[in-house]
Amino acid sequence: MAFRIDDTDRNILRELQRDASRSLDEIAKAVGSSKTPVWNRIRKMREAGVIGRTVVELDAEKLGFEACFFVLIRTSEHEADWQKRFLEALRARPEVQEAHRLAGEIDYILKVRVANARAYDAFYQALISEVRVYNVTALLSMEEIKATAELPL
Hints:
Elements: H1 7-18, H2 24-31, H3 35-47, E1 67-74, H4 80-91, E2 96-101, E3 108-114, H5 117-130, E4 135-140
Antiparallel strand pairs: 1-3, 1-4, 2-3
Helix pairs in contact: 1-2, 2-3
Protein backbone atom coordinates (compact mmCIF):
# COMPACT_ATOMS: atom_id res chain seq x y z
CA MET A 1 0.00 0.00 0.00
CA ALA A 2 1.32 3.43 -0.92
CA PHE A 3 2.17 5.93 1.79
CA ARG A 4 -0.36 8.76 1.64
CA ILE A 5 1.05 12.26 1.46
CA ASP A 6 -0.75 15.57 1.62
CA ASP A 7 0.10 18.97 0.13
CA THR A 8 2.38 19.88 3.04
CA ASP A 9 4.31 16.63 2.61
CA ARG A 10 4.63 17.35 -1.12
CA ASN A 11 5.95 20.82 -0.39
CA ILE A 12 8.49 19.42 2.07
CA LEU A 13 9.58 16.81 -0.49
CA ARG A 14 9.95 19.49 -3.19
CA GLU A 15 12.16 21.54 -0.91
CA LEU A 16 14.26 18.52 0.07
CA GLN A 17 14.70 17.60 -3.60
CA ARG A 18 15.92 21.10 -4.40
CA ASP A 19 18.50 21.16 -1.60
CA ALA A 20 18.42 18.75 1.32
CA SER A 21 21.49 20.37 2.89
CA ARG A 22 19.45 23.38 4.05
CA SER A 23 18.62 23.66 7.71
CA LEU A 24 15.32 22.43 9.05
CA ASP A 25 14.43 26.05 9.85
CA GLU A 26 14.93 27.06 6.22
CA ILE A 27 12.84 24.17 4.93
CA ALA A 28 10.07 24.86 7.46
CA LYS A 29 10.02 28.54 6.48
CA ALA A 30 9.86 27.64 2.77
CA VAL A 31 6.81 25.41 3.31
CA GLY A 32 5.08 27.82 5.70
CA SER A 33 5.37 25.72 8.83
CA SER A 34 7.48 25.44 11.95
CA LYS A 35 10.45 23.18 12.60
CA THR A 36 8.92 20.46 14.80
CA PRO A 37 5.95 19.54 12.56
CA VAL A 38 8.24 19.50 9.52
CA TRP A 39 10.77 17.28 11.32
CA ASN A 40 7.98 14.89 12.37
CA ARG A 41 6.71 14.64 8.79
CA ILE A 42 10.22 14.04 7.44
CA ARG A 43 10.81 11.34 10.07
CA LYS A 44 7.53 9.60 9.18
CA MET A 45 8.33 9.71 5.46
CA ARG A 46 11.80 8.25 6.14
CA GLU A 47 10.29 5.46 8.25
CA ALA A 48 7.80 4.71 5.45
CA GLY A 49 10.59 4.61 2.88
CA VAL A 50 9.29 7.60 0.93
CA ILE A 51 12.59 9.35 1.66
CA GLY A 52 15.69 7.26 1.17
CA ARG A 53 19.32 8.06 1.73
CA THR A 54 20.68 11.58 1.42
CA VAL A 55 23.57 12.02 -1.01
CA VAL A 56 25.75 14.78 -2.40
CA GLU A 57 25.55 15.58 -6.10
CA LEU A 58 29.05 15.74 -7.62
CA ASP A 59 30.19 17.35 -10.86
CA ALA A 60 31.46 14.38 -12.89
CA GLU A 61 33.36 16.45 -15.46
CA LYS A 62 35.20 18.49 -12.83
CA LEU A 63 36.27 15.20 -11.25
CA GLY A 64 37.63 13.85 -14.53
CA PHE A 65 34.70 11.69 -15.65
CA GLU A 66 34.19 13.43 -18.97
CA ALA A 67 32.59 10.61 -20.97
CA CYS A 68 29.04 9.35 -20.49
CA PHE A 69 28.04 6.28 -22.49
CA PHE A 70 24.62 4.73 -22.85
CA VAL A 71 25.19 1.05 -23.39
CA LEU A 72 22.50 -1.07 -25.07
CA ILE A 73 22.82 -4.77 -24.35
CA ARG A 74 21.10 -7.67 -26.05
CA THR A 75 21.55 -11.16 -24.72
CA SER A 76 20.59 -14.55 -26.01
CA GLU A 77 20.70 -15.96 -22.48
CA HIS A 78 17.82 -15.50 -20.10
CA GLU A 79 18.58 -18.14 -17.48
CA ALA A 80 18.50 -17.19 -13.80
CA ASP A 81 22.19 -18.05 -13.32
CA TRP A 82 23.28 -15.78 -16.18
CA GLN A 83 21.09 -12.95 -14.96
CA LYS A 84 22.48 -13.30 -11.43
CA ARG A 85 26.09 -13.12 -12.69
CA PHE A 86 25.23 -10.17 -14.95
CA LEU A 87 23.59 -8.19 -12.16
CA GLU A 88 26.49 -8.93 -9.81
CA ALA A 89 28.95 -7.73 -12.46
CA LEU A 90 26.99 -4.48 -12.90
CA ARG A 91 26.67 -3.82 -9.18
CA ALA A 92 30.42 -4.36 -8.72
CA ARG A 93 31.29 -1.65 -11.24
CA PRO A 94 31.16 1.93 -9.97
CA GLU A 95 31.21 3.21 -13.57
CA VAL A 96 27.62 2.00 -13.97
CA GLN A 97 25.44 4.82 -12.69
CA GLU A 98 22.16 3.31 -13.85
CA ALA A 99 21.03 -0.03 -15.21
CA HIS A 100 17.56 -0.86 -16.50
CA ARG A 101 16.00 -4.08 -17.82
CA LEU A 102 13.84 -3.22 -20.80
CA ALA A 103 10.91 -4.57 -22.75
CA GLY A 104 11.49 -4.82 -26.49
CA GLU A 105 14.47 -5.66 -28.67
CA ILE A 106 17.09 -4.33 -26.24
CA ASP A 107 17.35 -6.27 -22.98
CA TYR A 108 19.31 -3.78 -20.84
CA ILE A 109 20.45 -0.18 -20.96
CA LEU A 110 23.29 1.12 -18.82
CA LYS A 111 24.46 4.63 -18.08
CA VAL A 112 28.23 4.41 -17.74
CA ARG A 113 30.38 7.35 -16.61
CA VAL A 114 34.13 7.14 -17.29
CA ALA A 115 37.10 9.41 -17.94
CA ASN A 116 37.38 8.73 -21.68
CA ALA A 117 36.92 6.18 -24.48
CA ARG A 118 39.87 4.08 -23.27
CA ALA A 119 38.32 3.83 -19.83
CA TYR A 120 35.06 2.76 -21.45
CA ASP A 121 36.90 0.07 -23.43
CA ALA A 122 38.49 -1.24 -20.21
CA PHE A 123 35.02 -1.36 -18.63
CA TYR A 124 33.60 -3.13 -21.70
CA GLN A 125 36.42 -5.70 -21.85
CA ALA A 126 36.04 -6.47 -18.15
CA LEU A 127 32.27 -6.86 -18.45
CA ILE A 128 32.35 -9.23 -21.42
CA SER A 129 35.07 -11.29 -19.74
CA GLU A 130 32.64 -12.00 -16.90
CA VAL A 131 29.35 -12.51 -18.71
CA ARG A 132 28.46 -13.44 -22.25
CA VAL A 133 26.33 -10.98 -24.20
CA TYR A 134 24.94 -11.27 -27.70
CA ASN A 135 25.31 -7.64 -28.78
CA VAL A 136 26.55 -4.41 -27.20
CA THR A 137 26.04 -0.94 -28.65
CA ALA A 138 27.69 2.01 -26.92
CA LEU A 139 26.37 5.51 -27.54
CA LEU A 140 28.52 8.45 -26.44
CA SER A 141 26.58 11.38 -25.03
CA MET A 142 27.82 14.52 -26.75
CA GLU A 143 26.04 16.90 -24.38
CA GLU A 144 23.95 16.50 -21.25
CA ILE A 145 20.90 18.67 -21.84
CA LYS A 146 18.97 17.84 -18.70
CA ALA A 147 19.68 15.65 -15.70
CA THR A 148 17.67 15.53 -12.52
CA ALA A 149 16.70 13.13 -9.80
CA GLU A 150 13.74 15.29 -8.82
CA LEU A 151 10.29 13.79 -9.16
CA PRO A 152 7.51 16.04 -10.52
CA LEU A 153 5.55 16.41 -7.31
